[in-house]
Request: fold
Amino acid sequence: MCRYMAERTTAGAVSSEPLIELRDVYKIYGEGLESEVRALDGVNLRIMRGEYVAIIGSSGSGKSTMMNILGCLDLPTYGDYYLDGELVSSLGDSELSEIRNRQIGFIFQGFNLISELTALENVELPLDYQGVFVANKRARAIEALEKVGMGGRLNHHSNEMSGGQQQRVAIARAIVTNPPLILADEPTGNLDSKTTADVISILRGLHAAGATVVLITHDREIARNADRTVRVLDGRIVHDSAVDGKEDI
Amino acid sequence: MNLQRTFKMALKSISANKGRSFLTMLGIIIGVAAVIALVSLVKGQQNAILAEFRKMGTNQIQVDYHIWNGADVDYTDELYAYCDSLGSDVVLGISPQIYANGNNEVRYRDKKAEYPNVYLVSDQYTICSGFTINRGRDLCYMDVKRMNKVCLLGSKVADDLFNYENPVGKSITLGGESYTVIGTYASKGVSQEQGGSYYDNIVVVPYTLQSRINKSEYSYSSNHTYIVKAASSEAMSEATRKLNEFFEIRGVSQNGYYGVYANDEYMNYQMEGLAEQGIFLGIIAGIALLVGGIGIMNIMLVTVTERTKEIGIRKAIGAPRRVIITQFLIESSLLSAMGGLLGILLGYGITPVLGKVLPDYASLGVVIMPAPFIVVVSFFVSIAFGIGFGVYPAMRASSLQPVDALRSE
Reply:
């Protein structure tokens, strides 16, 4: 599956080929019922390689649903989702697992570390699923932890770390596979302002190193760090700074 | 996938809920111990009975015939020659074994033996019957040919008449006539259940003395019984076939009857009965094991529910279904394997105790230990149950939608 191993563009440069393309994407719950909910209601979105995009919206706007679909955690009811040219919405369970593993690095609000495992083991986990040779795996996991400044806490469990430290470990886990796409869902929602600044600067660094970063947030301060903002309301994109010009947020 | 880490995770998960894990294992522990104990008890009984049959004498064939119309035909010499011609890899010996039904009171001075069985036999009787001589000598060809008035005593008769005296060379009276004791047989040591000292309560004399001992015409003509010793248990069927042939060729079934009975038939019958009993008890105990397996499935479903979030995280970072399935299968099989091992320990503990306590087995007078084959079988069956009953929970875990699983707390 070498074609998934997308090459990174040079630092910070935005390429002309889309990494993400949503075409008329709908996510409808309870379709046809009176209680029908259109979480996504005809979304079209293109994100180029090397972009740093913030998707903003209040809770219930549909931004989390969009994040789930972009992250291949969920499939659209209608419409097509192309990730790196591949029609994701037609893929089966095992192909989706492989895409999540190699193409996407997730950063969650609640960190989502596995508490029974140490920091190092958590970071090694995505490599375990790739079957990478063990010595190489350990070295790569340590390298990723050092990048986020957690090289000194390899054998700590999550209950021995602060929220900021846990989120750094989670970021190390997201970048250990060198995925072209970093998806961050309210990554600073559970953090204080000091550690928020750290996490935001790490994300900037990743973007500067060539990764495409998509950040989902309701926090305007955080969104301001991104190069492009996409505002979602009632399941539709109501403002896109790339199309409509810079929004006053 | 990292198998070592998966095992570590499974062990952690099991030890995190020690009480719950132990209660889950209890079903397997009891099931395995029950299978081991019940099957081993029956197996032990089988071995003990087999040993008894060995003492009585193995590979024996009883032969008898009778000719109607009073026209008596004596096939003894022909049978001797025939058995000889079959070769020592089929038949080791043949001897008449005629029950003396006349006056067979046996006395030495003022002592009287307690209703011994007196048999008229040849010099091959010792080989055929499985006795061993412990004092004196065996009957020889010349004793038979010359109708020497000599006898051998079974250990019960020797004890009754002579106490601690050496009977060899002494004279006893049988039916009022004097016989010289030339030797004694060692006890067969058969247990009370299988007849005990009955087998040792015998006196044997050369069969050529038949006319002196079985005096009535009727008894004389009706007694054509022989004991044949086959070379091995494998040679039994060949020997019985050949002996049947002997009588068929001579047309005995037309003007009389004959019988050829392998003595292992009764033993095989008893063994088959016990084997069936063993299978039956094994299945009953297997049901306990099955219930234990269902207990594992139940607790694994609980575990999957508890760890939905973790499953979601793993799926989000790219764990394929087979990794999730393997993880839960390893946990369930580890649970059942630990239960299986504890069950084996319990089985080793209770099998000899039950063998001592239950009257059926205690009377065998042997210590019954678990049979290795059933220990191995029950261990692998318990692991198989762990895997088998782990499949459904594992499939459920692996088919969770990552978005739903992540949302759970």
Notes: Chain A touches chain B through 30 residues (CB under 8 Å). The longest strand of chain A covers residues 18-29. Chain A has eight helices and ten strands. Confidence is low (pLDDT under 50) at residues 1-11 of chain A.
